[in-house]
Specification:
Number of helices: 3
Order of helices and strands: EEHEEHH
Structural class: alpha+beta
Low-confidence stretches: none
Largest sheet: 4 strands, mixed
Oligomer: single chain
Mean pLDDT: 90
Shape: globular
Amino acid sequence: MVVVRGRGWEIENVDDVREYAREHGYDLTSEDLDGICLDSEALILIDASLTGCHRLEIEIHELLHAYDPDIPERRVRILGRTLARALWRLGYRGQPTKQAPPTI
């Protein structure tokens, strides 16, 4: 779990983001769906097959939606990609940790 703006969010890895979202009542038409932020459930779904910098980009992208659902999608895409690439170049690789999650 991560805390974003005082709210706890679960992040789950799933095999089929679209199917899992449908099971939660969301009807999605996007062809390319690597992740989704389900605000009503404080749940972020990430495609379990993603790895590397692209996975980091999608994680950041969905966390940005959790932080502010009103940010335009284009801006979220640009911010997610920019932050992921910068963090990747700095050596961040998303290793698991036993520390308590930070509050964002």
